[in-house]
Design a protein that fits this description.
The chain is 17% helix and 48% strand. By secondary structure, it is α+β, with helices and mostly antiparallel strands. A hairpin with a 4-residue loop joins strand 8 and strand 9 (170-181). The chain starts with a helix and ends in an 8-residue tail after the last strand.
């Protein structure tokens, strides 16, 4: 009986060692692919004009922050469809659009939860990148990429939005793209 249990334990141990070796080989080859990720890094500029390209759909609670170029009351539901240009100048070449929604999530009116679809018409890439995340209206905000279409199918990475000009009727944000394609998506690039 003891001998049979010893053989069973030895067989189980041998199987475990083989599984661990197989796992190490699989992980080793997986890391090899990371050195061949295709990537794309560039910046565009988003221009938003209250009551022209961005609208408050539901007013937030009274008593907190008011409506300004950088704040909306807590709970405010805001939608936008803004142009994306090649430079910070609003009259520069339009290369895409940013459409989405945000809900003010802080009582000071400076932060919100945002969802956006960034449609791009670049020289060598056309399609859209979808992002979601927290926005700080007066500081840079990073958004993880959660999907893409067209040339951006299977894309991963993040987008950073930073205020450039918050004065006047139209506010401008610099939108920096840090995009990566996994090895299995090479045909999509």
């Amino acid at each position: 009986m003891a001998f049979a249990m010893h053989n069973h334990a030895l067989a189980l141990f041998s199987t475990l060692v083989l599984v661990m070796i197989s796992f190490e080989i699989a992980c080793g080859s997986h890391h090899h692919h990371h050195h061949h990720l295709k990537s794309l890094h560039f910046s565009l500029y988003q221009h938003e004009t209250i009551n022209k390209t961005g609208y408050i759909i539901v007013n937030g609670i009274k008593g907190g922050a008011g409506v300004t170029q950088t704040t909306t009351p807590f709970g405010t539901f805001f939608v936008f469809q803004d142009i994306l240009t090649a430079t910070a100048n609003r009259s520069s070449k339009v290369v895409g659009s940013s459409e989405g929604t945000s809900i003010t999530s802080s009582f000071d009116g400076l932060q919100s939860i945002s969802i956006a679809k960034l449609t791009l018409r670049l020289k060598h890439h056309k399609g859209s990148v979808q992002v979601v995340g927290g926005t700080n209206n007066i500081k840079p905000s990073d958004y993880p990429v959660v999907g893409g279409t067209g040339d951006f199918l299977f894309v991963q990475g993040y987008v950073t939005s930073s205020p450039v000009d918050l004065k006047g009727i139209t506010v401008t944000y610099k939108v920096e793209f840090h995009l990566y394609w996994p090895p299995y998506a090479s045909q999509a690039f």
